[in-house]
């Protein structure tokens, strides 16, 4: 009887251990003396590596520059402290003021779709936390990013500067109008849902350039579009996957 009880206890302990093992190994929960400990930079690097392998490369993102950028940018520092434990989970997270930081896979996929290189001058619309800007800036020459919510824009600008992303400039204004003084751009990424492709952005795209933008469909979500401008200035649009972004606010605020 005692033996059976012992076996049952061992089975229960094994089940509990193996249920929590991925979290313990991932570093999402580090248990020290029975208390939850703050993850170290090494824990975060390990979580990032697993994020890239399991959520991004496993879903087909192959571009080495994109995978390296996703591996190097400390996503947890772009996430509000209260949500940091979930920084490397396969999900978007709130960043305050009703806005969100996108799911890691979507950040990687959109970056791969943009097909950018080290000589490119790129515009991002919707700075938010600054995470996508950091990922892009690790690959390209210059990254210009526009945020309409002043508080988010200043916060992201400060963080990007502190982390040494020196090739990024943040502007507080209506991104739908683009950044005419810095145009034309080799590539443009919009990370908020637009009712249609904003005309000024098409205009500010270089011939031979490309834009990635979520545009509203009739199903309460958006189609992620790849928009290409050929050397004659003609526009070709390709629909990719359905996505869900916060809306692009069409309100002009302040400039720089
Ligand atoms: N790229 C961000 C997430 C984008 S969330 C990141 O990596 O964290 C979308 C962002 O677009 C929000 O911060 C929202 O305030 C901003 N936004 C909405 N309308 C905008 C507009 N017209 N111009 C610039 N930014 C806008």
Notes on the structure:
By secondary structure, the protein is α/β, with parallel strands linked by helices. The protein has a single domain (62-243), classed as Rossmann fold (3-Layer(aba) Sandwich). It contains seven helices and eleven strands. It has helices at residues 2-26, 41-56, 64-72, 104-114, 131-137, 150-162, 199-203, and strands spanning 30-32, 35-37, 93-96, 99-101, 121-125, 142-147, 168-172, 185-190, 205-216, 222-229, 235-243. It is elongated. Residues 18-32 have low confidence and may be disordered. The structure holds S-adenosyl-L-homocysteine. S-adenosyl-L-homocysteine binds at residues 95, 99-102, 125-126, 128-129, 131-132, 146-149, 152, 174-176, 191-192, 246, 248-249.
């Amino acid at each position: 009887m005692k033996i059976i009880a012992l076996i049952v206890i061992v089975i229960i302990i094994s089940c509990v251990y193996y249920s929590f093992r991925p979290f313990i190994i991932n570093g999402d929960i580090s248990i020290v003396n029975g208390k939850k400990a703050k993850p170290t930079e090494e824990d975060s690097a390990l979580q990032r590596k697993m994020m890239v392998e399991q959520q991004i490369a496993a879903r087909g993102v192959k571009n080495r520059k994109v995978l390296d950028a996703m591996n190097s940018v400390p996503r947890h520092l772009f996430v509000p402290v209260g949500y940091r434990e979930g920084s490397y989970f396969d999900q978007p997270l709130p960043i305050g003021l009703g806005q969100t930081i996108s799911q890691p896979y979507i950040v990687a996929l959109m970056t791969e779709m943009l097909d950018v290189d080290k000589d490119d001058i790129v515009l991002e619309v919707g700075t938010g936390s600054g995470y996508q800007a950091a990922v892009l800036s690790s690959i390209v020459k210059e990254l210009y990013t526009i945020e309409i919510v002043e508080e988010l824009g200043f916060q992201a600008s400060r963080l990007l500067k502190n982390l040494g992303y020196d090739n990024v400039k943040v502007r507080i204004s209506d991104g739908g109008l683009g950044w005419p003084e810095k145009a034309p751009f080799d590539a443009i990424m919009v990370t908020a849902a637009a009712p249609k492709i904003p005309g000024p952005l098409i205009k500010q795209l270089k011939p031979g350039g490309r834009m990635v933008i979520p545009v509203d469909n009739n199903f309460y979500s958006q189609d992620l579009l790849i928009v290409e401008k050929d050397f004659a200035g003609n526009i070709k649009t390709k629909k990719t996957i359905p996505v869900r972004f916060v809306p692009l606010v069409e309100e002009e605020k302040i400039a720089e």
